[in-house]
Amino acid sequence: MINVLTAFHDKVQDKTQLYDNYAIIVDPQYEPFLITQFDLFFLSLQDLTELLRTFRANFVFNKLKRSLATALLILALPFAALYILSTTTFITLAIPAIFLVLIKEEIFLAAFALLILWHDLATNFDARKLLVTYPTLDDFLKNSIENQGVQFQNFTIQQPLDYFHPVTFELLVNSLSASKNSTVLNTSNLLKTVLGHEHIQRVLKRLEIPDIENLLNSASLTTETAPIYDYTALQSLILYSLEQAIETKSRRVYPEHVLLALFSIFPVLKDVLQEHKVDFLTFEKTIEWYIIADQYRARTSILDLSQIYHNKGGVADGWVKGFTFFLDKISTNVLDQVTAIGGIYGIGHTKEINNLIGILQKQTDANAILVGDPGVGKSSVIYGLAQRIIEGDIPPALKNLSIKAVDINKFLSLASAGRGGIPELVEKLSAELRKQVGTILYFDDLEVLLSTGSGEGTAMSYLLPLLLQSPVPIVGTMTFAQYSTLKDKYPTVIDAFKEVRVDPLSKEDTFTILTTKIDKLEQMHRITISLPALKDILVLTATYQPNKRFPKKAVELLEQAAVQASTTKDKQLTRELVAQVIQTLADIPVAQSSPEEAEKLLTLEKRIHQKYVNQHDAVLAVVDSLQRAKTSVRNTSHPFGVYLFLGPSGVGKTELAKITAKEYFGSDFSMIRIDMSQYKQDSDIPTIMSQLSKVALRPYTLLLLDEFEKTTTTIHDIFMRLFDEGIVVTPKDETLYFNNSIIIATSNIGSNLLLKAPPEKFEETKLQILDMLPQYLKVELINRFDKVIVFGALSLEHLQQIAVLMVNDLVQKLSEQGIRSTYTDKTINYLVAHGYVPGMGARPLRRTLQDSLETALAKFILKSQQEAGANPKDVNFDELLPSV
Amino acid sequence: MIQELTLRNPGTFSVVGGFFSFMRSFFAWWYGDVPLILFAKLQRILVVINDITSFGVILKGYFRPWKNDYNIAGWLVGMVLKTCYLPIIASFFVVTISGFLLALLVQLSVLPVIIGLIVLNPFLKP
After folding, report:
1. Assembly ipTM
2. Could you list the residue range(s) of the whole structural domain that residue B113 is in?
3. Which residues are in the Clp ATPase C-terminal domain (chain A) (predicted)?
4. Does B26 contact A65 at a Cβ distance shorter than 8 Å?
5. Do the Cβ atoms of B7 and A111 come within 8 Å?
6. B115 and A101: CB-CB below 8 Å?
7. Quick check: pTM over 0.90?
8. Could you report the per-residue pLDDT of A29-64, keeping only the tens digit for each?
9. Number of other CB atoms surrounding residue B90 within 10 Å
10. What is the DSSP string of A685-722?
């Protein structure tokens, strides 16, 4: 949506040309101008020079005038007091006549000074004219400029500086400096002056850039990146600043717009922000937000002409429209609410609001149901409509309408409190509405009517007469699931109501909504909210709360983080705090660039191998996927990683999953483990779904599907989408998200081949197993695994290492109880000798440890407790082993 | 040449010239902009009064019955009450507008002149 164009006029060739590269024009042959649908902004070089010439003189005069008027006003106070005292009878003051004349003179001069200050305030402290909202430009104008067909006489010529806030022009003038015989514009100086302005400083503070000096001395600021121009360059800069003001919908040109213009002219300056980890878009949004917020804050009283007055009807409204005592009891006026709360409503829902306006203009069945997922902003559509009515931005037929939001729960509680049953209250409401003109009834969460009561006796069935033959338009909201129930049970309602689909908002619109919340939350919790934190809220909720919708999930997180920020020492809602809050809410360790977190990830492989022997490929695959996930370089609509582990029993497939869950996800409880061999019928699908639904409570998890090949093909098909998109839809239409999970499926396919093959033929056997895989699983399912890893059989050497890990684990457990334990190779050799069964992996070893060492140890400890009344202090495992 | 008109040659400035230029600007604002601002405020005050007293609503619905009860009694009560109510509110409007206009007249036309006369009074006396 372009509403302004920049172009220049070649005086020599008398040609106009558009340009969009933000070039600085210093050649007097070319005259830049800005054009909107009706206005042409142009500042001639003569005018600019004259303004600059007289600026300082005017500045000094105004300062002098202001000081004099203020002094006269201050002096008038004691003079007025003296004069009053001299006229009273309580105190006799002998004031000479000449002084009395002077006092009177001073008081009247002060009155005049007051007028001068008023004039000063009205003319020198604000822009002479205010910018308006400019309509979107059509291609016709663009083509006209290119083809020399613009009829300039049809445009109103505007002086750009009329729209500049005086402070902005002062900044521009102050950045000029004398050089030899000319005056130059040093853009580096200008940038530093603008960055030092209080408006920009508050922006930087909100962007978590506290060190302004550092920013000013940035390495990116050189004479090459910010050059020196002749002062005539101001002509272009003024127009570009004005363009920025129009684009940000500001009413005046502020120093912020000069800065945005400088960033557009010299894109390399964006690096200065990048050095502070702030992207330009966030910077731009922050400036935009301040401008809008300042304009809203300036609206204070009903006599403020910039504020649209909302008609409430007045004391005698009911005389004509009829009184609605019952309706008033169960409803609130949405228009009054919007006026009282203030703010902007319906952001991102223009399409839905327009759709609703179309329906409400119908002669019959002007009813609508807003259908959408929870949290997409269905109510916001109604509030947006209310705002459009207040602002008069609505077709004439809907002007002066009022919207009454019916509190269904209040209605039902009145019915149950014996104030008449539902049918009686419905009749009462209908009677009042029949006399009402210009009202829309709004039912938020219409589904409450479906869930109240049972069978034919639901509240909906009682309200049917009202819904179907309402004398006033009705608008309700519903989720998709409830809407389909309504379709089945009450098709007549569906006929009488038009469906308006409400889609989730984009990230950009949600960001705008979040910015509208800043003021209220800051006041309520006495905190400062940084804009990068808002951006993080969007990114984190999009990644870690896929089951919730924008904008509600982002608003909820913002509100929770604001509460959290109010409890901190510096009262700042920062990016770190947002990460902490979502970590708690979603039970997810959120990606942070802290050295500890990086260390944890980089050493993960090593730490897993401290507890896990061999199978390097498998460990590496798991670690790689977690590292990708943490650095946010992964595809967020796919699980962290989907792996198929193949291998004989006891080689450590499940053990690796357990250790990963413990080492990375916090504990092995973070794992959802499903033994697929138990589900050999398609009728087992609901049971599997209920197991999978645990992910809703713990989205950051490891899903282990043991013996995956042993279930049915239909069940395998369910997992296809899960492996691919990280999504599975339950029979109850509930969507489960696994995009923050690692999925590991294990299988014994090809185990016999592996057990029979000598170690040197492992690679060959592996290929054989992979070749035979399609006999057990569909090819498209196999393709959905990120990696298929074949676990090799464990050798004696591996078993020895595993035995050491197991015994060390035991040593650790005992040391926690204050028992110091020792052992030698004798223990390890014993365990391996008795726990090695070819083809059975490490499981027999675990059993040997349990039967021989752990049992003996338990007996030893009990004996010590019996004899000494306490645990033994020392134990030697070698001595506990049965003699061979 | 345009380039010669630089800040090194900032033109001449006299206090007297500046004063007269200021007075011209002041009176242009006082008699040009201020009445417009005040009239806009008056318009808003009238809108608020109209809303609070339901003047416009009553006027538009003058021929509609009391509380929208379409029967003889409704028509009768409605007409009588509204006929009594409207002149009271109308007089309120008239008083507000006239008071405002009077104040505006005094403030705009007379005030600066009176101030000027009082300030200059000692010097005008023989």
Report:
1. 0.78
2. 35-124
3. 794-879
4. no
5. no
6. no
7. no
8. 888 999 999 999 999 888 898 888 888 778 888 888
9. 13
10. HHHHHHHHGGGGT--SEEEEEETGGGS-HHHHHHHHHH
